[in-house]
Amino acid sequence: MTHDRQPPAAVSARGWGWRHASRRAWAVDGLDLDIEPGQRVLLLGASGAGKSTLMHALAGVIGGDDEGEQRGELRVAGQDATSARGVAGLVLQDPDSQVILARVGDDVAFGCENLGVPRDEIWRRVAEALEAVGLDLPLEHPTSALSGGQKQRLALAGVLAMRPGLILLDEPTANLDPDGVAEVRDAVARVARTTGATLIVIEHRVEVWRDIVDRVVVLAPGGGVMADGDPDSVLRARGAELSASGVWIPEFPPPIAQRRVAGSGTRLMDATGLGIARVRGTRIATGIDVALDEGRATAIVGPNGAGKSTLALTLAGLLRPAEGVVSATQALTGQLKSTSPIDWRSKDLLTRIGTVFQDPEHQFLAATVRDELAVGPRALELSAQEISTRVDGLLERLRLDHLALANPFTLSGGEKRRLSVATVLATRPKLLVLDEPTFGQDSRTWSELVSLLAGLLDEGQSILAVTHDADFVAALADDEIRLS
Amino acid sequence: MSILTPTKGAQAIYRINPVAKLATAFLLSFALILTIDWLSAATALVLESVLFAWAGLSARQFFLRTIPIWIAAPTAGFTTLLYGQSSGQSHFEFGLVHVTDGSISLAIATALRVLAIGLPAIVLFVTIDPTDLADGLAQVWHLPSRFVLGALAGLRLVGLFLDDWRSLELARRARGVGDRGRIRRVVSQAFALLVLSIRRGSKLATAMEARGFGGDTKRTWARESLVGWREVLLIGIGAVIAAASVVVAVAFGTWNFIV
């Protein structure tokens, strides 16, 4: 085992394919691809084209024969990819599940330890890697105190310290706010420059990586390469097609439905001097004034940690205000006596305030998509006829009909998002509260979501959305609440 | 969650290898569960309380962290007083309750014992950093690194589970099923948490594997886990206290084997 830097690695695929053990179709098939050492490649393709599968295989973490079946040949630096441990380093999408140890220094050292690097050498590499990604923190700094962008840079440092010849980034910025995206992008650019390692990035948002990569490869759904070349020519030739399949390309923005009506002027809810707390006793923000009107969209914006989600959940009747009151008007309460949503029964919320959580998995309750949609209407004790009409309507409207019998947890990210919105729409609430609805979504899901919400607003429903997404705010929001 | 937030400080106790703390706590407990008499426990407790002053905890921290023991000890004592094995003169009897000379001395012995085992264990454990413990278990005791590091990485997820649990609770209220019976809700929520934790766990496993964990290469350790004079001293003190309490109890004839 040598402890020197790995030379930039070449990648070559010859008729390569992979099929997950639980699926009948091949996730990737018939792939022929050559990447020269030191090249920086942006890997695109519609969701389901097998991009992540290819990345996992290149990183050697795709699993053995019990997890799937391989055909053809996939080589990294001349070795079989599945056995080439340590040649490639992989950074994944979710910042939380990549932090391994409790202290920054230990976490970066983890990969080196596994490769059997001697102790003195490990700490030299840790310092070098942290500097390369611009994380200027003490080695004892707790990893739990890092922001999303810092966690991703930490993961990158952990990979760098292993001195891989190939760096693989699987949507490393999809779950980050705009500041985090810039932090990570800049760190990657610096690393690519200084190490010269081969780089492969998957990302929906082309503009983030466009200036860093020198080649774009588009995988075709169902196998093979659809387009390949320098970024400008590929994006010019295939831009419209890519944009329709969900890739964000500045020259081809996703279509947006236009709003027609901007509210009826009826007040739904008021809150003055509101103090908010996630956990009882620890106030995050105070002195917030909010007024929500029928048929209007309000965006809650501001930096991470300002309490945006907490404010939304407080207004949604899910968290008790730490001070002040949330007061619903007659237009929202209907027959209820109490004007304070937190004092309503859970069932009473259904037709009044519907909340879509940031992580769809938190709100799934049933074993199939169809049952999931029926949960709310059943709690309202609607007739079987009515339930099935509503469920069928939503399945079709949100393109989930072919998945009616699938388990919600097995859906893709975009499908999960659409389902979580649909479950709330099933009970037709007057006010819709959405927590980061567009986080990590491809442009196709984004544009469907925006069009759907625009339609709901025109029908007189109201929307309150927590968001970092400037495009979303520009497309929909009538009012803005800025927390700092 | 004391295990996730070990107290920090500059005192010597924080630099002692956690495996030595573990060994000391086991040693004390083992000597004190062999017998149930007031003298052995009292001797251990007196000797231990001298050492608590150097434990590296402020008085406030000490009492806050050991509250459970201060509650458990009199509770266990009181229960023994009322229902413990009766012998000697009877003082009070009502239904199953029977207070006798025998149950009084058993009660005192039990309460002291809970303190004598519980207090040092907590004082030693709250100053343990899980990472250092894992290093010690793998390097000093040579437990398999796969299990030790897997458990250590998994421990970090516990904090995320607390957040998950809160979100699950709110989400159930939002979905209109929050009015159901509390027990039924907790069961369904616990199942959902299990599903989420398995998914998080498998993602973490992939991330660990991507950093070469579980490969064939012999692992090195970035942090060296050492056993030196400090550790020997701590275990020695534990052994002296354990021996002293046994010797005193045997010498004064209060020792009674319960194994």
TrEMBL record, chain A:
Residues 11-247, 266-484 form the ABC transporter domain. SUPFAM superfamilies: P-loop containing nucleoside triphosphate hydrolases (SSF52540). PROSITE patterns: ABC_TRANSPORTER_1, ABC_TRANSPORTER_2. GO terms for cellular component: ATP-binding cassette (ABC) transporter complex. It comes from Agreia pratensis. This is Energy-coupling factor transport system ATP-binding protein. Keywords: ATP-binding, Nucleotide-binding, Transport. GO terms for molecular function: ATP binding; ATP hydrolysis activity; ATPase-coupled transmembrane transporter activity. Belongs to the ABC transporter superfamily. CDD domains: ABC_cobalt_CbiO_domain1. InterPro entries: AAA+_ATPase, ABC_transporter-like_ATP-bd, ABC_transporter-like_CS, ABC_transpr_CbiO/EcfA_su, ECF_ABC_transporter_ATP-bd, P-loop_NTPase.
UniProtKB/TrEMBL annotation, chain B:
Its main location: membrane. The chain crosses the membrane at residues 12-32, 38-55, 62-84, 104-128, 232-258. Coiled coil: none annotated. It comes from the Bacteria. Pfam families: CbiQ. GO terms for cellular component: plasma membrane. It is found in: Membrane. Keywords: Cell membrane, Membrane, Transmembrane, Transmembrane helix. It is a multi-pass membrane protein. This is Energy-coupling factor transport system permease protein. It comes from Agreia pratensis. The lineage of its organism: Bacteria, Bacillati, Actinomycetota, Actinomycetes, Micrococcales.
